[in-house]
What we know:
By secondary structure, the protein is an alpha/beta fold. It has helices at residues 38-49, 55-58, 90-112, 157-163, 170-189, 191-199, 204-228, 237-247, 250-258, 271-284, and strands at 12-16, 70-71, 121-125, 128-131, 134-137, 143-145, 150-153.
Amino acid sequence: xxxxDESESSNYEIRSGRGGGGFxxxxxxxxxxxxxGCGSLLVIIVxxxxxxxxxxxxLGDGGGQGPVVQRSQPGExxxxxxxxxxxxxxxxSRSLKxxxxxxxxxxxxxxxxxGAYSPTTLVFYxxxxxxxxxxxxxxxxxxxxxxxxRIFLDTAFFDExxxxxxxxxxxxxxxxxxxxxxxxVQDLEGTLDKVHAAQxxxxxxxxxxxxxxxxxxxxxxxxxxxAQDRNLLEPGDAEAGLRAAAAVGDDTLQKASQGYVVPEGxxxxxxxxxxxxxxxxLDGGDPARCDTFGPGGL
Length: 298
């Protein structure tokens, strides 16, 4: 990606301190027959590691009490998890350049429709922190929390993205951030509130199917961002993004973790569907085409 001339967003926080407790299961989640088996739990954790959610929310709980953390003011960097001199790390700078690009793109798209875009804030943390959606640690992966309208990211996740999930490179990292920004756009549009209200009335299987549509739309919105700011892309970036989308499909992750696929347990979409909707965004650059909730959505 061509990020050298891109301006960094000022909408960020760096939280210092490493929380205790780590990832844990909420009370009341049964194991084994009739509940969540070890394979299903692994799928939830792996899916949560890649693009999109706090794993505690997938398990139906907002999380427990988190650690006391030091919170910086937006735009300030107290030093952790930055480098020892207190400066932002290169991966943070790249992330903020991507965030700045999303702000320009979505600001224009909202303005074209007569609206105003309110940017999200990217929270960098190391080890653990408390979000409005519950406690987050490194195993949560990047996720968007609508309760405080922030994206939470332990940048060590990007090492996992390349080494464990076979999706290295700047564009794969940008795709992660743009996907989370897509959830913020859904939040501003009122989509997340409507979906969460509907899910409370649905069976688990139906609620999962609706969640897939949420995630696929966020993939499409990530593609819209890239198409709208195509000057940032270098040859091969789009293809790298599509490979990353396939690598984090529910079927791909389920096969890797348990050796077989359970479509009823999908929460993010198959590899083919994730590629499809990222491509819809990339090809058209039009958010109106990202209607995963319509009759032809899946």
